[in-house]
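REQUEST
  id: r-88c1
  op: predict_structure
  target: Inositol monophosphatase
  payload:
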Amino acid sequence: MNDAQDFEMKHAQGVADIAAEAARGYFRNPLQVEFKADESPVTQADRGVESKVRAYLGEHFPDDGIWGEEHGTEGDDREWMWVVDPIDGTRSFLSGNPLFGFLAARMHRGVPEIGVIGMPALGETLIGKRNGTATLNGQKIQTSTQTSLDHAVLYINEADKIYQAHPKVFAKLVASGQTRRFAYDCYPHALVAMGHVDAVVDYDLQPYDYLAVLAVVEAAGGIMTDWKGRTLTDKSACQPVICAATPELHAQLLAIVSIS
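RESPONSE
  id: r-88c1
  status: 200
  body:
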């Protein structure tokens, strides 16, 4: 690893640490909740964590742009750009559920070069480097080798939205896999990267929800696309997503979601 990569990896961990410390300061404490136009909640925790992260990135990556979910975009014409979701899973955070996350991706001309999934309440940080490796708290991780959906551990994220918008797909999904769970947010995808879960079907994601996850999952050996098998980019929006440990699993899930 060269000096530039060492610098990037060091600060990927650094930004995760800053976000985790800030998030834990708010977690399970009284919060003021507002609702955006799309009815998604936002709190002073979301804004406070993002402010801390932006300050850190401004100090260590002054030439990079930044796109944060809560405070918008600065320097969107720059070659390098950070995309940040300060609290992925605000509803989980609000309800005291420890499975909320922090997401950050450093993009080079629209391609995520490094991704960070932080789980502040769990003390876990996953980092993935494009064309490199993925780690959990510094230890290398990789996806499972499962190729059969019939024997897979399958997580269905945003199941209520999938049921409402694509009832036929939902019916097929709940009859798929050897073990299946309903879930939300980024942690199921992190579990794919760790090799504990074989696949996740997700729905209605924004770029700040999936770009960091994409970098980590791919570095761990997995595959992540939209429901048509297309590459996820920073220009995509409201995306349905398939995240799978192997190409074989990915293809089987693509066949299911195509019935919609």
